[in-house]
Amino acid sequence: MKQVWVEKYRPKKLDDVVGQTEITERLKAYAKTKSMPHLLFAGPAGTGKTTCAIALAKELFLENWKENFQEMNASDERGISVVRTKIKDYARIAPMGEAGFKIIFLDEADALTPEAQAALRRTMERYTQTCRFILSCNYSSKIIEPIQSRCAVFRFRSLKAEDIKLYLLRIAESENREITEDGMEALIYVAEGDARKATNSLQVAASMGDTIDSNMIYETASLARPQEVKRLLTTALGGSFAEARKRLDDLLITDGLSGVDVIRQIHRSIVDLPIPDHKKVQLVDKVGEIEFRIVEGGNERIQLEALISQFILAGEDMEGQSSR
Amino acid sequence: MGVSKITYFFFLIYHNEEALTYYLRNSFKASMNVDWAEKYRPKRLNDVVGNPTATKELRDWAETWERGTPKKKAVVLVGDPGVGKTSSALALAREFGWGIVELNASDLRNADAIRKVATSGALNETFTDSGEFVSTRHGGRKLIILDEADNIFGKEDYGGIQAIVMTIRETLQPIILIVNDYYALVRRSPALKSMCHTIRFSGIHKSSVIKLLRTICQNEDITVSNETLNALAEHSSGDLRSAINDLESLSLGKRKISEKDVTVLGFRDYRINIFKALTGIFRTTSYNRALESAYNLNEDPEHLLLWIDENLPLEYKKHEDLASAYYSLSRASIFLGRVRIRQHYKLWGYANDLMTAGVAVSKTSSMRGYTKYQFPSWLTKMSQTRGIRTLQKSLNEKLSSHYHTSRYVAQIEMFPYFRYLFENEKDFNIYAIRDLDLDSEEIAYILGEETDSPTVKHLLEKSKDLDKKKKEEKPQLTGSEKGKKEQDKGRKMRDTEDIDAKKAQDLRQKNLSDF
Prior knowledge:
The complex is a heterodimer of chains A (324) and B (515). Chain A has 324 residues and is an alpha/beta fold.
């Protein structure tokens, strides 16, 4: 059946998860004893946090896992009302079947405001008889201390090259594809330790041909959105405000990104820009200031335009230096 | 226009709500002498040009108030600008001898004030539209008119809509809401839809526009040909107020208007004003002069900000000037944001200074030459893409729940690859359509095609065939999932939640029976 490989090859069992052996061993112990404390999964994207949570639920609850496992994404609804209503409503219902409790998997919990986290803490305590939480986040430091102290903390490591390789080879074998040596190197390079990125690249490359080499992989990289942001920044450095504004509108309107989404990507792209490092540092400061202003309620587009004008200024300084 | 919104803000800033009624009365009086659109406002409902059915409905509703407090305590007048909504409301009040409390979108944030008026019954005294002092004890009601009610409910103005609903629920006085965009209003609160009687106003027919313009010309002693009146009416496209404004501006200092004059009409009056304000801001380096340019502007600060934003890069060519001006503009925008969030209107003053004077003093060299100012492209783009953005959102929700990610990751990391495979990988699309339950609009969006294109239809059919084949092997979709499929897209989010809630309830009942 045709589907997205990220989903198709998401490891079904804890044993199949690559690169996190210490973690999966401990989780397997929970599955075996049919009990667990609240858990906190911290680590970068694409390292297996969601996969482990689903696999653990499957091994704990067997055929009833879907009824006893609720997935929510905090970054989609960051307000306190989510905790008050959705989470609480689910938490107070008794578990189904044999299960002694059910699991709420709260992804990107670091996106919850501190107030919402405080409310969550009370919910965690109140319904601990019927419900366990797995909180997942990129940075555990953004989770308030009282919650951290109530959870067993698991730190997911960025995947090593050999872990990603192992995983990709498994997919290639099952799909009857071949990955050349330089193709594999390219995949590992674009993945940056993120199995989801690697798998997406692999699948798109595989749709171009049966033998996957580095050229195909690098071609897939052009699909990623950060390229568009990079183009926006290079246009700005080149000095054309009107052109840069058009690209910005494309991102905000045509692609429907939020201002903060764009800012996040600008931040990531700065390091690769063709400008001196001290300029990058100055610009990062501006980027942070602009994100702050958006959060403070400023109009997204105007804030980003203000940022663009700073990039134009930075680009002009460069020209001045090189002509001197 | 006698009194601008901006001055109006300052008024609100420096005075309290009691002053409001007084202010309104005066603004009425003052404008009677200046502005033809005001001067020729209909005095009675029967004088309202066009929309006879609407005005009759309005009168019928008002009569229910005369018999006590009716079931529908509020009406919504819906229609394009300049078709007589406000005029009808004012004429109605006059005809029934009701006092008027008129509030614009900008004041609505002052929701408490309205509520006080609405619920205070017959205790307070009031003014009529002509400024006469009327005690409600002598039978006069107070008609509360909320103009531009569709603008109140901006995304950030959380309290606004609730305040209105509460006010209508509790009011002892008739309320009229006036909107251009009915959808913008009821989308924010479906409750409003059932609480209010809706009356639609359509554009004024050309012949009626001509007729009124001719009357005005006779009154003002202006010679004008039929062709000219025809051109003016044509130009107004159903907007009677703009036709009157055009006539007035063309006749300034003249006794005769020719058809050729009409062709020089480019933009609406208010745009001519905003052009003047923009020139004032962009071409001076004086704090005071820049501030003055925006004084008499009939634009709210959020709008003015967008106008400045749009045209700033056309004027400030020096990169330092541009960056420095944008610094001020971005600060101004924060203050506007804080006004919305904290409902603290005094901050408006700072925003205003920053966006006018702040921008003006940012330049190091003076500007010359003619710049053709543009309408804020952001507004046009946003309104053009409203449908697409709703579509993106629903698609993102599907992707994110199917691929266990946040909507952000779904959009940034999954969608580009998903789209590529959808377009290029054989049969990927038909499985995706089935698994993610995509509808024709979403498919069309992914492929960049029209909803009714053959490709989209073909894919949908092929995907349905998959289901037929599947039927024999696997049980079909559950009832609730099927129901989900048929639901209206705009409401999808809420509906999904409803289903979740229903599921939760079912589970709860099941649990109870287990015990």
